[in-house]
Structures are given as structure tokens and as C-alpha cells.
Amino acid sequence: MSIGLNFDFRQIATSSMILFAVIDIVGSIPIIIGLRNKVGHIQSEKASIVAAIMMVAFLFVGEEILNLIGIDVNSFAVAGAFIIFFLAIEMILGIQLYKDDAPETASIVPLAFPMIAGAGTMTSLLSLRAEYHVENIIVAIVVNIIFVYLVLKSSSRIEKVLGASGIGIIRKVFGVILLAIAVKLFATNINQLF
Questions:
Q1: What whole-number distance in Å separates Cα of residue 54 and Cα of residue 52?
Q2: Which of 1, 35, 67, 77 could be cross-linked to 127 through a Cys-Cys bond (beta carbons 3.0 to 4.6 Å apart)?
Q3: Rounded to whole angstroms, how far apart are CA atoms 105 and 36?
Q4: Phi and psi at residue 113, in whole multiples of 5°?
């Protein structure tokens, strides 16, 4: 039995961009630096591996969990579009709509979850699954986890290079990209519901 792999560079690139914008690891650099100062050391490898495992697992069993509670992928994708929309608004306007508790330990909570593999990321994965081939999304996850790992490893250097204004500009640019993605996701999936 042969398994047909449908690798598509456009799907990989789009999935990577969506995950990059949703994970927003560059925008999280100030939070990462704050955590590092608070807890001393962040285990970059551990945080990256745990986040990757969570994302791939959710990509495969997320749909089954939804079916179990009677929700189809299109409905979840529309709900995901709303979450991505609000994340984008946060990034563009520089406001915080979602508040998290302060952490005691940093590598798994809140780094791997919910900062890297949070609700927005999980929703995006299922939304992407409604449109793209799984293997392309897995490649996008791997690309993003490698980037996340590199950012975690060199967060203090990146902060020195970019400065607060540089990080702010990057957040706003990705916010606009994310907003456009949310609109497209909503438009694509809303038709399937009626």
C-alpha cells in the first residue's frame, strides 16, 4: 500500500506564515526575557519539543475530539477565525484582551503551553486542516518549532538588535497579516455551514 504525499510549497509557506503569526514568538520576546529574569533559566529544547508534540498530536486527534462533542471542522474553523481576528486586533492596537496568570516555572507552562501551543495555535491547526494537506501542516509546524527554538536560545541578543520599537513594528505587521488570514478563513468556511 503506497501513501501519496501531497507536498505543496505554497501550502507549506502559507501554513508556516499563519503559525508564525499566531505563535508570534518574536512579539513574545519581552515576555520571554521577563520569564528568564524571573526563573533564571529557560529550557529552550524542552519547551520547543513539548510544543511540537502538542501541536502534532492536536493536528491528528483534534478533529476526533470535535466529532466526539458533535462539532464539525468548518464550525471550528469559523470559531478559529474569530480567535485569530482578536489576536490580530491585540497585535495591531497593542492592547491585551486575553489575560494569563503569572507563571512560577517557565519551560512548559507558560512557554510551551499556552504561549507557543496555545488556543490560537490549536485553533489555527484545525482551521488549516480544513483546507490543507496534513503533511504540509506538519512541515510548517517543524519550521516554526525550529524558529521558536532559535528565538528562545537567542532572545536577549534579538532584543538588543531590534529594540522595543523594532519588536513593536514586527508585531503590528504580523497583526495585519493575521487579520487578513482571519477574514479569508471566515469567508472560506462560513459558506460550508449553510
A1: 5
A2: 77
A3: 10
A4: -140, 125
pLDDT per position as a tens digit, 46-85 = 999 999 999 999 999 988 888 899 888 788 778 878 877 8
Residue 36 near residue 155, CB atoms below 8 Å: yes
Q: How far apart are CA 91 and CA 65, in angstroms?
A: 30
- Taking alpha carbons only, the member of 190, 164, 76 closest to residue 128 is 76
Tell me, letter by letter, the H, E, C secondary structure of the chain: CCCCCCCCHHHHHHHHHHHHHHHCCCCCHHHHHHHHHHHCCCCHHHHHHHHHHHHHHHHHHHHHHHHHCCCCHHHHHHHHHHHHHHHHHHHHHCCCCCCCCCCCCCHHHHHHHHHHCCHHHHHHHHHHHCCCCHHHHHHHHHHHHHHHHHHHHCHHHHHHHHHHHHHHHHHHHHHHHHHHHHHHHHHHHHHHHC
* 160: exposed, middle or buried (Cβ count in 10 Å: 0-12, 13-18, 19+): exposed
